[in-house]
């Protein structure tokens, strides 16, 4: 064969889709790849690394980090996978300890989907969408319509579908919070649309600032950008913020005034430590009751997922979005778009049903469910606080107190010598810092530049999912060493 | 509230993404929606329909149509969902009849993925990709590299990723067989790229015709289209064709000559009734050995899925694609693109492993697996033949004899009066025919216009998955009535 040097490929980095090439997605970028290499080295018995475990604090992946799945969910799923087990109900109950409500739930879900191996309707199984609508009604105290519910392949697929519909031209813009979960900017890149960044207010617990949003919108308009939607991530990713009702009302008023779609990413809605979660849907409906007519034109899409919360079933790729106030013809186009990929994973759809309908008080599985759920919640809170306390001990590190989601997003003051060293390696200063942290401690985080941040400020995002708090000590030690090295 | 008539939405059918709007995906279009309405009416006890069951012959969805899942697969999956069952191995074995190899496989897969509720690597779990590579080696007699294997959310997600990379500009073209599975044209529409249609040769068992391909390429080039890839679906969808080695070699030679990527959609590779399946990869490697150097520049992506074959686990959304001969930088962009959606469903990945590694002779689960597998294969063949015989009885209907996949795609001669009636309803003649068929028989098919066909010819696609053969009688009766009505 001729040498590869002489081969000319049809596809090269210079002639593929430039919009895919332009996309950035740091959550699974260089650091993540390197951390997996370290893990493989440790697994293979390598001894000369300065750490003995890799901590994947770069991604909200609870079950990779030893969070145990909720028993009820998995017992039901085991029957869904093998419905023949229902022929041996006595064995399930007496020998395997399955409660009666587990079996009843499996029967109900099998009625909804037939077989978890069959395609469902593209929008998701109707029975499950009805349960989601009832959940939203209970949560918000306002009605919800199953025909507005789209089950999805994780929340990410919902974001993808909605942005594919919204992004009509290269001058279409979408307001995106900075810092943000990079799914938004990456998808906008792929779609050759414009990200209209608005900065969150770090010193007000990373809240939204209406003046900031208005200024971003106006600047975009002056640049010929046709802004069609605003993204809000509440509770915040990567910030961990949890919005107040007033903040949400402000966003809704602004969206109604400018006639733009609101995309509320609410996947962390049960991960709230301070105050409580208010859904955009509830706040919208409350406003509509108080001020009839004002918000009638508003289109709100809100997203939820089984990947986060205390469930943490990321690998099952379950999620949903509710489309409120959209034109029926537009919804039909969303349906067509999602139908091209046939349907969301059916077992993931079943997890969505269990998420919106967990065991209730009085049901057999409730005591264990409650114990597991509370234990996970408490563990998350304790680790968040431990990390927060560790950050307090680090020179030049500032962190908002934990409020929600699974992340902390401290700012770091990087010494000029380290900034210079980063430049020489053609890296952002916080990227350089996070790589050094990984090399020294085995802890993989994501540099703030992967999410966006104000010029001249540097951050990193860490989850507080990894078990134990020993590793927070590693971080303190690394940081102090780093500061000394580059002082 | 103000009346909806006065509301002005941000998003309307006239200002959303025009490329999504332009996409057509008939497999889940008007007929499918109508058939689901009929089904709901029957379920609700409606008596005055001229049929008592709806037959969803529009989509290859075996388990919706009572095909039983393979026991081994589902027993393993039940343990993957609830690994606590492994603590009661004796119960699994003695009370539930799980064989030892079921338990061993579940342990092996759990080692590969950790938890099915955790995100895996974006390209899929490495252990599973290694098993896929070994399977390809056994199948083809040529080596395969796990780093070239991408696990995916069904084969559809693989097509989506590959086309997203390939389609660089609005003048990028992709050669697509006509008739085709509309995933291809729909995705090209969404990406604002060009479908370069080449017609399959109906009277040569729907085979590929190199002159046809060459002519299509040349015409496209004259129109300023930059053709970058050719799609082949083998065995064929919707045609049911199964390609000979010579046909495959012709396509590979042409692709090497024109320096275009080959996308081989091989999801029906085990659904072959006539002759045998040859993978594009094997034929390529054989050619490379025979003619060193000639094919070194060729890029081949071949796709497979757990949705079809005798497995039929569509709802689990498992698939993979192998990328052979691609530039590493291009592969890195594919990786980045798929990482934006995090990872394919993990339980679906496990089904891929079981597909490529089913129970082997001598293993405990083999006898039952073999019996189930052969039974499904035989059932498919018998129903294909029953349908084929039924079509022979219909005036003006011509059908190629069943060769592969899950479909027959007969041509129909539609009387001029019916064509006129269709026109008055603003429908294609075969759409009109298929709607009439659904209304009269409850059998839902997809009109040929949903896949593309030569001008003036009309077809419909039917699966041969639905149990029994009684419904083929309904078709004959409907057709004869239709011909009489419009004669």
Average pLDDT of chain A, to the nearest integer? 94
Order of strands, widest sheet of chain A: 2-8-7-6-5-3-4
Globally, the shape of chain A reads globular
User: N- to C-terminal separation of chain A?
Assistant: 55 Å
For this structure, the quaternary state is homodimer
Helix content of chain A: 40-55%
Q: State the low-pLDDT regions of chain A, or none.
A: 1-6
The main pleated sheet of chain A reads as: 7 strands, mixed
> What is the number of helices of chain A?
17
**Which chains have the largest interface?**
A-B, 104 and 104 residues
β-strand amount of chain A: 5-15%
Give the beta-strand count of chain A.
14
Explain what this protein looks like in three dimensions.
2 copies of one chain form a homodimer. Chain A is an alpha/beta fold and 487 residues long. Helices cover 44% and strands 12% of the residues of chain A. Chain A has helices at residues 18-22, 30-43, 71-81, 89-95, 100-113, 126-140, 154-166, 183-190, 210-222, 245-258, 280-290, 328-339, 346-356, 366-392, 416-424, 429-441, 470-485, and strands at 55-56, 149-152, 172-178, 194-199, 226-233, 261-265, 300-305, 319-324, 397-398, 407-408, 411-412, 443-444, 446-447, 458-463. In chain A, strands 2-8-7-6-5-3-4 form a 7-stranded mixed sheet, sandwiched between helices. In chain A, strands 9, 10, 11, 13 and 14 form a 5-stranded antiparallel sheet that branches. A two-stranded parallel sheet of chain A has the order 1-12. In chain A, strand 6 (261-265), helix 11 and strand 7 (300-305) form a beta-alpha-beta unit. In chain A, helix 6 runs parallel beside helix 13 and helix 7 (154-166) crosses helix 8.
């Amino acid at each position: 064969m001729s040498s590869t040097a002489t081969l000319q490929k049809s596809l090269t980095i210079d002639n593929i889709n430039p919009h895919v090439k332009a996309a950035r997605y740091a959550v699974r970028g260089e650091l993540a790849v390197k951390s997996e290499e370290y893990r493989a080295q440790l697994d293979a018995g390598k001894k000369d690394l300065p750490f003995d475990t890799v901590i994947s604090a770069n991604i909200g992946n609870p079950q990779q980090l030893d969070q145990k799945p909720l028993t009820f969910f998995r017992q039901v799923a085991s029957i869904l996978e093998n419905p023949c087990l229902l022929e041996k109900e006595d064995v399930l109950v007496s020998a395997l300890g399955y409660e009666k409500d587990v079996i009843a739930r499996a029967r109900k879900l099998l009625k909804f989907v037939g077989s978890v191996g069959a395609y469902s309707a593209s929008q998701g199984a109707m029975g499950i969408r009805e349960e989601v609508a009832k959940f939203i009604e209970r949560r918000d105290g306002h009605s919800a319509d199953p025909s507005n519910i789209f089950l999805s392949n994780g929340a990410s697929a919902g974001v993808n579908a909605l942005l594919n519909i919204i992004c009509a031209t290269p001058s279409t813009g979408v307001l995106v919070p900075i810092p943000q979960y990079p799914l938004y900017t990456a998808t906008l890149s792929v779609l050759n649309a414009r990200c209209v960044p608005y900065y969150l207010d770090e010193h007000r617990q990373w809240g939204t600032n209406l003046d900031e949003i208005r200024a971003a919108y106006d600047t975009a308009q002056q640049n010929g950008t046709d802004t069609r939607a605003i993204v809000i991530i509440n509770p915040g990713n990567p910030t961990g913020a949890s919005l107040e009702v007033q903040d949400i009302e402000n966003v809704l008023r602004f969206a109604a005034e400018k006639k733009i779609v609101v995309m509320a990413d609410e996947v962390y809605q049960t991960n709230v430590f301070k105050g409580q979660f208010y859904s955009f849907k509830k706040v919208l409906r409350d406003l509509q009751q108080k001020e009839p007519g004002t918000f009638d034109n508003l289109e709100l899409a809100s997203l939820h997922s089984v990947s986060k919360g205390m469930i943490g079933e990321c690998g099952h790729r379950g999620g949903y979005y509710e489309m409120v106030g959209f034109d029926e013809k537009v919804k039909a186009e969303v349906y067509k778009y999602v139908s091209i990929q046939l349907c969301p994973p059916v077992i993931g759809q079943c997890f969505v049903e269990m998420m919106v309908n967990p065991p209730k008080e009085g049901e057999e599985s409730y005591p264990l469910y409650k114990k597991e759920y509370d234990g996970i919640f408490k563990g998350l809170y304790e680790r968040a606080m431990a990390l927060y306390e560790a950050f307090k001990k680090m020179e030049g590190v500032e962190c908002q107190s934990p409020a929600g989601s699974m992340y902390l997003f401290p700012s770091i003051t990087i010494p000029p010598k380290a900034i210079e060293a980063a430049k020489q390696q053609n890296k952002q200063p916080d990227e350089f810092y996070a790589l050094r942290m990984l090399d020294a401690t085995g802890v993989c985080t994501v540099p703030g530049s992967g999410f966006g941040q104000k010029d001249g400020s540097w951050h990193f995002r860490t989850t507080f999912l990894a078990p134990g708090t020993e590793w927070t000590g590693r971080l303190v030690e690394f940081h102090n060493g780093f500061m000394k090295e580059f002082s």
